[in-house]
């Protein structure tokens, strides 16, 4: 039976569902080209009805670009460096109270690797172990978000830039979330990476708006989690503007994916922000993701600018 490609959800404005794709399908260049075209045009692809293995996940990822090893070494999967393993376990990764409810896995709206000067183009995510509740992955399209901005605001922000730095604890990001987050137990990951933040992950700068290379569409390029301030406007007015834009972004249409183990999910990291809702704290949630190489060429390290 041939695979099928459908709209992810009627009226959403982005995303595609791919049903029944096989490893044999992606050996054909015509199929590979079709998948790449949908990815660039629609931003998000959910693969259902496939036999999901780490090998197929890696092979599918390579349809969209070369793979790279993730810069946070604690996440790299032993024996399979193309994959990172994301384990949500309150005894290892910490425990949070989100809006009064104990939760694991919670992650605010963000773009992957925005804390580096070279943002990867995407990733394919799978669920190895899901929780009985929560743990949904949400997506918002920043192409759509820019199109929905008032014209005066589009003009005002066209040449602004944002300073970012890796943020580990979801409760410590000024723009990351509207939820009330309290740390109940700090995780091993935070203890390991936290002391290395300034040396290994210094602040970086990315444009607030850029033009999508393959389509010419504008992207509202904001990652709320990890955003520090607008470059040159680290003041009350600048923070008010950034808050207004973050509020606009997270109020845009969103898709929340409730996971099944037989699914793979691909997104264009240059134009989609994503988040994870809190999950059952007495369970373990395990996800694996590839990192598709690429660089839109617009990020830079802040310290390099200061030294110039």
UniProtKB/TrEMBL annotation:
Q: Which domain of life is it from?
A: Bacteria
What are the entry keywords?
Dioxygenase, Iron, Metal-binding, Oxidoreductase
Q: What is this protein called?
A: Taurine catabolism dioxygenase TauD/TfdA
Q: Does the keyword Nucleotidyltransferase apply?
A: no
The entry sums up its family as follows:
Belongs to the TfdA dioxygenase family.
UniProt-listed PANTHER family: (3R)-3-[(CARBOXYMETHYL)AMINO]FATTY ACID OXYGENASE_DECARBOXYLASE, DIOXYGENASE RV0097-RELATED
InterPro entries in alphabetical order: TauD-like_sf, TauD/TfdA-like, TfdA_dioxygenase
Q: Please provide, alphabetically and separated by semicolons, the GO molecular function terms listed in this UniProt record.
A: 2-oxoglutarate-dependent dioxygenase activity; metal ion binding
Please state every residue range assigned to the domain named TauD/TfdA-like: 6-291
